[in-house]
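fyi for ur records
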Amino acid sequence: MSEHFQGPVPRERRHKRVTTREVTATIETLGGAVSMTVANLSIGGALLAGQGPFERGEIWELELKLKGTRAVTVRGEVVHVRTEGVGIAFQGVGADETAALEKLISTAEAKNALPPPLPANRRGTDEQPVFVPRPEDPFAQEHDPRPPRGGSPDERAEYLRLLIKNRDETIRKAKAAYTAVVSEADQLRALVTKLKSKLDALGAQQALTDVALAAARAETERERQARVTEVAQERDGRLAERATHEQLLEQEQRRTLEAIAAVSGLEAKMRRHEHEAKVALEEAETARKEAVAAVSEASNVRRAREELMQANRKAMENQTALNKEKAARAALEKQLGDEQAASAAANEELKRVKEEMARLKAKLVNAENAIERMASRSSAKAARSPVK
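which gave:
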């Protein structure tokens, strides 16, 4: 790790480095405790953000803390002090410190791996659905425990039980997240259907407005043509009878003014209808944009559901592998029991053979004693018998 901080071009790293802003390092100095933020962390060292009262080559004791985990105390050497921060290379890290550092790094990495939040809901209408809060991310958790270094069956069984428990908890959380996503997708689908119905209604209303507007224009044109024709005829009649029909001309002029006022009113009504139609078109365009955004959000939800299904399939595959390993362990335990029973039977047979050998040895000793006694008697008898 110290080689990484020496030169301007970093060499190949021996340890995995995790970027974090939630781990803090506390250093006891002569002026008091100094707390600094850890920019990145690995088993071999750390980069502290800022400068601090440090010089290259100094040895300090650091206390690394992360919310929700136990503090880790390590010794480190200052290998460089730069604008981006202070580089620390850990020294004399034992097995316990290594395990604690691995847990701290795994927790920091899990927090960094949390997925980003979904885009915020549009608030242009009161008909937006109320989304159910999603459960915690089932994959934002600590890594699986390390396999036992020993090979005893009890340690392996405890490791497998803990691994199966972690897998079951992950599957449960994934199912809960999948249920929440499906519920949210159903609500979005209902909103899209409602917006589509509203858009269709607005389209029908616009069509009716266009028909009414065309009818009003045609009626206005007919009335105007009729009035123009009538005025022309009356004007010709008045020119012929101008002297005798002066009052009739004044009446017709009043009627003409009334017709013009009616035409003006119709034109104002037509302009009002045109404005309403324009507003309806704008509302329809807004509804169309909202429907497009809802469809896009539904597509994002479908992709998230597919990712959850892939994670579920992967978890089921891991569960199948664990079941196979559990069956193999049961077979090994059965074989071990058979071997222990055979060993016990062999021990009993050996004990019986030893007892038989002891009895045979005792018989042999008795036979040897009997032979010696018989030899003694024969010698004594030969000594007593006279020589011929």
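Residues 246-384 form the longest helix (139 residues). thats all i got for now
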